Amino acid sequence: MKKRILVVDDEPAITRMLVLILEQTGRYEVRSENSGRNAIALAREFRPDLMLLDVMMPGMLGSEIAEQLQADPELRAIKFVFLTAVVSKEEAQRSNGQIGGHTFIAKPISADDLCRTVEEHLG
Q1: In terms of Cα–Cα distance, which of 26, 112, 36, 105 is closest to 69?
Q2: What's the pLDDT at 96?
Q3: Which positions carry 4-aspartylphosphate (predicted)?
Q4: Which carries the bigger pLDDT value, residue 39 or residue 56?
Q5: Share of the chain above pLDDT 70, in %
Q6: Distance from CA of residue 38 to its chain's centroid?
Q7: Torsion angle of alpha carbons 8, 104, 3, 9, nearest 10°?
Q8: DSSP letters for 39-88
Q9: DSSP secondary structure code for residue 35 in this structure
Q10: Domain containing 32: what range?
């Protein structure tokens, strides 16, 4: 059975690109959401194994979505990786890709980096 991934970013061009990259591997069922406010409801319905969460979004930050996931007994098993344009690739490498103990990927994201990070989290 394919692992499920939910991509949450307020920029439709980014979610489309990430969905395409992940679907091309043939390993994942991928859905996307451009509204942070709708992400929790979609997570509840879709039951992803992993969420890729943009950090800076209008309405609701990626960190707030992650907090709600972790506070919900039904959703706390969902793994998540933050996407951010705020941190450079160099900063990401220096901190081993971690912010507050959570993995993040610096934008712009290469297909290789994306697939490697997803593989590491879904094993």
Answers
A1: 36
A2: 65
A3: 54
A4: 39
A5: 87
A6: 14
A7: 10
A8: HHHHHHHH--SEEEEESS-SSS-HHHHHHHHHH-TTTTT-EEEEEESSS-
A9: -
A10: 3-122
Give the pLDDT confidence of 82-105 residue by residue, as tens digits: 998 866 556 556 656 565 667 888
The answer to whether 23 touches 68, Cβ cutoff 8 Å, is: no
Q: Give the amino acid at 84.
A: T
Check residue 98 and give its pLDDT.
Answer: 60
Q: What pLDDT, in 10s, does the model give residues 50-72?
A: 999 998 888 888 989 999 999 99
Q: How far apart are CA 115 and CA 109, in angstroms?
A: 10
CATH number of the domain that residue 12 is part of: 3.40.50.2300
Question: CA neighbours within 13 Å on the CB side: how many for 2?
Answer: 14
H/E segment holding residue 106: strand 102-106
Tokens of 16: 């489309």
What is the number of structural domains in the chain?
1
Residues 6+ apart with CB under 8 A from 62: 8, 36, 53, 54, 55, 56, 82, 83
